[in-house]
Amino acid sequence: MQRPRTTIGDVARTAGVSVATVSKVINGRYGVAAATSQRVQRVIDDLGYESSLVARSLRSLRTNVIGILVAEFEPYSTELLKGVSSAVQGTGYELLAYSGGGRAGGHAGWERRYLSRLSGTLIDGAILVTPTVVDAEYGIPVVAIDPHTGPSGFPTVDADNFSGALSATEHLIALGHTRIGHLAGRADLESSRLREAGYRTALERAGLDVDPELIRVGGYRSDDAEQPARELLTLSRRPSAIFAANDLSAIRTMEVAGELGLSVPGDVSVVGFDNVPESALAQPPLTTVNQPMQAMGRAALGLLIDLLDGKERDAHVQLPTELVVRGSTRRLRL
Amino acid sequence: MQRPRTTIGDVARTAGVSVATVSKVINGRYGVAAATSQRVQRVIDDLGYESSLVARSLRSLRTNVIGILVAEFEPYSTELLKGVSSAVQGTGYELLAYSGGGRAGGHAGWERRYLSRLSGTLIDGAILVTPTVVDAEYGIPVVAIDPHTGPSGFPTVDADNFSGALSATEHLIALGHTRIGHLAGRADLESSRLREAGYRTALERAGLDVDPELIRVGGYRSDDAEQPARELLTLSRRPSAIFAANDLSAIRTMEVAGELGLSVPGDVSVVGFDNVPESALAQPPLTTVNQPMQAMGRAALGLLIDLLDGKERDAHVQLPTELVVRGSTRRLRL
DNA sequence: CTGTTAGCGCTTTCAA
DNA sequence: TTGAAAGCGCTAACAG
Predict the structure, then answer these.
(1) How many CB atoms lie within 10 A of CB B282?
(2) Which residues form the signal peptide (chains A, B) (predicted)?
(3) pLDDT digits (tens, 9 = 90+) for B36-46
């Protein structure tokens, strides 16, 4: 099976020239006779030769490949990916999305590891999705989307998490809910903190108490949300509404409610955050806060390309969020 | 900015040993004194060293990285990606999704180019999404999802396109439609041909004529679908229903209908294919044929890993499709 | 205009 | 148990 791939050496031998000459032809360098160039080109076509990204990148400084590093391919990161992909068209760059399997994403600092692995340089620059540690120096230009620490002195794209959480909670309050639970995100993420802050602020503005018992950590991942969702829904004084820190945990919350024989939105209203496509598919369709993920991906790519071109750009881009009311919330019946 | 990354040489120098020794420690080879090993390990941790995938792959045959090659990150390929990503957890493999920017996906044979670039070996095996040319020998184990030519003597995963198209068209016929247009996919794709065959068969079984004027090529991409959709909808004897070969072109068809002042499903019913999450978000929600994309991704990964482990597996996996009725189709009013 | 040479960071014999 | 040296495929000086 493992027929070794054709190398530049094979091409050189077949064409009767040196590898250096072939390299020049491939890269369009000056100093090759037209006739030679054509002959080499023919051999390249005949053999179906394509230069190895690996070998090339070991030697040269540019590969025209942009990396996008994610902990896992889930709805959020894939939406970003769609945005980046649409924006990369015509820029001359190719895209390489990298994700460790398994729990790598769980370890803080996964982005450092991945970057180290790919650097050197398989990629010219990288987009980090939800990195936990935003270290100072990475060796290559880097843009972060929704980083752990929030904007911290280097290029960042995020959404207005605070306002989004505020309007989500205000929506529930406007519907007459007063006992509103919150399924928080990962404690180490700035976005998570901002969403909780929006929740608290909305309650306070409405003159409602913030009951610590109603706040649980769901951790953004569906699996991790199950247990805390169950706790909230089996409280003796059960909340009549829950604001989950992202759609995945909101959807899981609705599933748990179903298992407990509770109807959404009949017995409990649920609001999510992100507006991933899956939220509209849920039963009932999830009321959520839209985060313009594809636009964020495009913005990140724009920042990164400017960086690669040596143009310094405004270090921080924040895009607006917006409440999307669907079927998982309803007015509280007294 | 470009602080060069720490290399194995840096580690060796700091630890006062040779690079060879460091390499052995990293790879857990025998023949290193425990004390030395510990000292080297400490330096590695201190320096935050991570070996370069690039350099390593140039030398050794395994990288434990699986490639997934796509023409573009759009809803279909990202759904597959989610499936592959969930299945890769715990296998010890990492994932590298690669996509050329721009029109690379348009050129037939893009998968060959990408594979050549990544081979040699950045990746141990690859999953090819909708490859156009399924060449015999690629040098590394390869599994194709929904290939151009259909199952052709090497491992393939696809969905039951014919049955899906059949039930989509039968659904329209059952609703009383008799003039049913078809917006076909890319002419070079087997899946596209099968969907058209399902459409034709359903019409024939119902004793309806297949009017060639009602069949246009939409090409699976949203942009490419606009013109043919417009043509169908402005025909003097306009069809009362359209079966589009995938969701993206179905959604575009609905948009075009809107621009033309036609209501969906009031004036024209529309059915798609794939059931990408976006289809449920469309206005109105799209009736479509579900293709279990995440399961297909998981199946492809399973096949590939078995191949990598030297286990030969059943070369062809076909998953069932299923009609999902939503709001874009309705009974024809006479 | 073309070829020789020297690495890029790493793994792997093979000697010491 | 360790290290020196070769070489993976390629590019970039530099010589011829």
Answers:
(1) 21
(2) none
(3) 999 999 999 98
